[in-house]
Amino acid sequence: MTGDQILIFFAGIVGGALRVGAPFLFVSLGECLTEKSGRINLGLEGVLVLSAMSSFGASYLSGSPWVGVLAGALTGALLAGLHGVLCSLPRVNDVATGIALMLLGMGLAFYLGKPLIQPQAPQLPSIPLGNWSDSAAVRSALQVSALVPIGLAIAGALWWAFANTRAGLLVRMAGDSANAARALGYSVSGIRIASTAAGGAIAGLGGASLTLFYPGSWNEGISSGQGLIAVALVIFARWSPLRCVGAAALFGAAGAIGPALQSVGVGWGYHLFNIVPYVLTLLILVITCKPGSVVSGSPGELSSR
């Protein structure tokens, strides 16, 4: 490759890490908050898909993409909040309920979103990071969603809150020792329901980034399993919001390899490179989830199950 092609390729990887990684970032942050409270939400795939549909529909009907973003966050909070309420009932399993909610969210999205497959909704503004270059290809590759800074701010806020606030301490206490939280008079179920709903709202922003920026349309295969991959991302990030940023960027860059190669005229292996995020997920699960071992940083209530 020539020098210009190498520059375009690396710009595509960096831009992809921010653009493709945005949904991974929001969903992993939402799951990180949920799991910090001692609850697992495998239904985030349904949250992501339903939020993507509602974001697109609200943007289309209102004419404002920011209304769509709010609709996505609200949808995510409602569906995840339902998961939290159901899991607080006696003898209800988090994993089974999450799978049921995933199917419910996806089914609702596919049914209600059929009229939205053809229309075009107003899109979120982009942040140009490539204006320093004279190359149109580099400038195009480095266009990122206006939601990316919001995601970075949420990651920093969660990290700070877990370490420095009473609310963050309560979430961590509910996740590490439910008995200790109850002994101090706190409602573990209430903390977990609130954390799960808030995590769903954050994940809903990931749905908005899918349909209102990249790829910027609504269809039934929009998420490609990103909600499920987020669970592996949280394990990889050791339940740290800041490390979730790096993990999301890594997966975003992995998903951008194929398009980046295509942008410089390399067409072979395009579909093969598209499976890289899924291979990374399998590797992470194989390496970190060994029988009889506890992953470093895991909330105590999750590791005791």
Structure description:
The chain has 305 residues and is mostly helical. The chain has helices at 3-19, 21-36, 44-62, 65-87, 94-112, 136-141, 147-164, 166-176, 178-183, 188-212, 226-236, 241-263, 270-273, 276-288, 300-303; strands at residues 126-128, 143-145. It is built from 15 helices and 2 strands. The chain has a two-stranded antiparallel sheet. The longest helix is centred in the middle third of the chain and has 25 residues, at 188-212.
User: What is the number of beta strands?
Assistant: 2
Number of helical regions? 15
List the strand order in the largest sheet.
1-2
Task: Outline the biggest β-sheet.
Answer: 2 strands, antiparallel
SSE order, as H and E?
HHHHHEHEHHHHHHHHH
Classified by CATH, the class is Mainly Alpha
- Overall pLDDT: 88
Q: N- to C-terminal separation?
A: 52 Å
CATH architecture: Orthogonal Bundle
What number of domains? 1
Net shape? globular
| Structural class designation | mainly alpha
Low-confidence stretches: none
Do you know the CATH topology?
A: ABC transporter involved in vitamin B12 uptake, BtuC
Q: What is the gyration radius calculated from CA atoms?
A: 19 Å
Helical residues, percent: over 70%
- Binned strand content: under 5%
